[in-house]
Amino acid sequence: MAKADIDFEKELWNAANELRGAVSENNYKNYILPLVFLKHLSERYDIVQDELEGLMEDPKSDYYTTDKEEKTYVLGDPDEYRSRNTFVVPKSASWQYLKDNAGQDDIKVKIDDAFDVLQDLLTAHNGQLVNLLPRIFVKSELSAKQTGGIINLLSHPKFSEKENPESDILGRIYEFYIGRFAMAEGSGAGQFFTPGSIVRLLVEMLEPYKGRIFDPACGSGGMFVQSLKFIKEHGGNKKDIAIYGQEMTAQTLRLCLMNLLLRDLSFDIQLGNSLLADKFPELKADYIIANPPFNVSNWHPEDLPEGDPRLFGPKEEFTTDGSANYMWMQTFWSHLSDTGTAGVVMANGAMTSNTKGERNVRQHMVDSSMVDAIVRMPDKLFLTTGIPACLFILSKNRDGRDGTHRERNKEILFIDASKMGTMASRKLRVFSDEDIHKIANSYHAWRASGAVTERSRSALTEPKTEMQSPNGEEVRSLSGAKVRSLSGAEVYQDIAGFCKAATLAEVQQQDYKLTPGIYVGSEAEEDDGIPFESKMASLKTQLLAQFEKGEELKKQIVANFDKL
Predict the structure, then answer these.
(1) What is the Cα–Cα distance from 166 to 159, expressed in whole angstroms?
(2) Fewest C-beta in 10 Å: which of 43, 112, 243, 302?
(3) What's the rounded Cα separation, in Å, for the pair 475 and 19?
(4) Tally of domains in the chain
(5) Taking every annotated instance into account, which residue ranges of this chain make up the domain N6 adenine-specific DNA methyltransferase N-terminal (predicted)?
């Protein structure tokens, strides 16, 4: 069954609602997600076991054998399963066992016991996975009937990885729950959840095909999962990426680890405060994709060591206790490789803040050509906060030495996407695929080799003019404007009201403000083709008619008063 054919939202939320009354909505995730994870481990074991049995029955396979003892040995060999990214799951920890006992009074004990068994396997496999599945059901207020109800609902065939191969069904269930739980939890969910369309936009802009991907505020791991999806969609190999992350909340770290294990990704995720206890001081990442907490105050910059290598200058000049936003920026920059790029979600205030510590960092970033692009986003993209947001793209490959992108050290691309997106509900706006492609394609065209500079822009044919590239290829439309293609490549062009490649000098003249609206100007109005003189005459006639109608109404009102 294809992904698009599996519609499970209603049933999944019904399963979560089994917890209603006994568990607050903001704690649903702590009970549902570990069960989804257990189901994944159990089904993975069943799938691999079936594969091994098939190999031993196949005369063409190296595993082929008719010896019953040999078969029993292979099917019970832990190494055979570990080499296929899974474990030998004992019967007492299997999903089938929990399903068979869902109606028993001691089902909560059985779940916690199953967690203990799986936790031992996980800890032995990777020390980072300690305490991933704590005993939580026995001490909960859930009844045995509620607990069994969750198991029965999650046992539906449409939620089975075995029944729906290649669908990533349990990963998708996990992703669905994280999003829905964020909606239920409200403002407290920002620490573990970034809306999917924002994550997709960042990943599409950065294109993390291969290399080291780092998120020092990784939450539940959505940036990593979306990077994996991008790689798959573009024919890449997940073995070409190495994942690193840091998360300061132990509970959220567990969500991330389970999320990555569901996708069979290799990773190094550490617990700790990235600002004050950087666990990866030597890491140089090819891509940083992050949504750090906005505007965190009282984060104790005084606890930073003197001469912290991340800082652009003296601590008292380049930090402020009022907001951690620009300490995050300095942390991201310090972790980029020589050709690395960072995509960061930030509060809009970071584009213009004049607090000394923040202004100093922003000015240093502009003067030192660290900022590649700024994207202003629309409101209501986050369910978890009403704070308007933007994207900062920082890059160390602005000199063009990577052989893929042109030299753009003296430019910054500004994109105003504040009018984009579609309301998916009364409270939530999302980017469509078209929105994401429009923004990402504009960025890619601007930074690509052969992109248009101010000197060559005048040579472009006017927008809306049909044309072909010099080699005869059809020109691709970018944001609705037809532009000339040099050697067939898509070429960037400023579009009033949407995007502008501003020089560093222009930004410096604007007192280092990075708000895109300052640079992109107003969107050009469509010319309706009616001459001004004709339009003015028509408006005058319409206005005189309205005046005449107003006089008639005035007389009628006075006449009505006289009758009273």
Answers:
(1) 13
(2) 302
(3) 56
(4) 2
(5) 9-123
